[in-house]
Design a protein that fits this description.
- With 284 residues, the chain is mainly beta.
- The protein has a domain of 126 residues: Methylamine Dehydrogenase, Chain H, CATH 2.130.10.10.
- It is built from no helices and 26 strands.
- The protein has a four-stranded antiparallel β-sheet with strand order 1-2-3-4, with no helix packed on it.
- The chain is globular and about 45 Å long.
- 43% of the residues are buried.
Length: 284
């Protein structure tokens, strides 16, 4: 599905790649090069609009066009539960933080769901006024970055939760001029985030999330669809849409181009990686 706002690819810790195509979620086991079908959603609820593995590599969340989220056990091919009442429209982005599944919707809402309990909605973040298309938790689990079709990046801080501050937003970052889907926390430095803008922006920006300051901005020349870090080599991989549909490998912090890979005939909307020695193994 050629939809910039959806997140239809995720590589789990068990070396299994989840791929959503229309109403069906497929699992590709990289260890055995085998593919299986996890589920096909009925037309009333589909298509699938996002997939996200839990850290255990066994449980997977499936976001749907009808605003619901299904939780599945991939080992037994069994649906565990359905999360309802989180959103009013499709769920295009998700991110796990331990037992908390954070979901972002076309309604602009961000919701923390505690999957262990019946009344699963434990926190709601209000800040975006258009679709939330990017969500990423920091490695510490204390900061959440969100990107939206409103061209905004928001930083939310779990450590600042209080009854007087229900949103917990610490920064509203307004420098992008197009939708922000691509988000990636720098793995070797705390409080540092990379974000990528859509077709009207085409930049990768680096943020100090403690101060809310933009440290650097690089014009890539193309719509930025996704970002991935290689922490061992301090390299950043970006995937792109209009105009070049390329992959670019950057050296950080100089942002010198190490490689540029052409060949895709349409935009590279999704990239996920598993680390092989010190390099990337990617699917897009």
């Amino acid at each position: 599905m050629d939809d910039f706002y959806l997140n239809l690819l995720d590589w789990g810790s068990s070396n299994v790649l989840a791929i959503a195509l229309g109403n069906t979620v497929y699992l590709w086991d990289a260890s055995y090069s085998s593919t299986s079908e996890l589920v096909t959603i009925d037309d009333d609820n589909g298509p699938v609009t996002s997939v996200s593995w839990a850290s255990d590599g066994r449980h997977i969340a499936i976001g749907l066009n009808n605003s619901e989220v299904q939780l599945w056990d991939s080992a037994s091919n069994r649906q565990l539960r359905t999360l309802r009442g989180c959103h009013r429209s499709r769920v295009g982005s998700m991110a796990w933080n331990s037992h908390i599944l954070t979901t972002g919707g076309m309604d602009g809402m961000i919701v923390n769901n505690d999957v262990r309990i019946r009344s699963h909605v434990v926190k709601t973040y209000r800040g975006h006024w258009q679709e939330v298309c990017g969500l990423k938790w920091s490695a510490s689990g204390q900061q959440l970055a969100s990107g939206g079709n409103d061209n905004l990046v928001h930083i939310w801080d779990m450590s600042k939760a209080s009854s007087n501050s229900p949103t917990q937003r610490i920064h509203r970052l307004e420098d992008h001029t197009s939708a922000v889907k691509a988000l990636a926390w720098v793995p070797f430095q705390s409080n540092l985030l990379a974000s990528g803008g859509g077709g009207g922006d085409r930049t990768i920006k680096f943020w100090n999330t403690h101060r809310g300051a933009c440290l650097n901005s690089v014009d890539t020349g193309s719509q930025v669809c996704a970002l991935l870090w290689n922490k061992n080599e301090r390299e950043l991989l970006s995937s792109h849409g209009f105009t070049q549909n390329q992959l670019i490998l950057w050296k950080y912090p100089s942002m010198v181009k190490m490689a540029e890979i052409m060949g895709h005939t349409s935009r590279v909307l999704h990239i996920k990686a598993r680390m092989v020695h010190s390099g990337f193994s990617c699917r897009g």
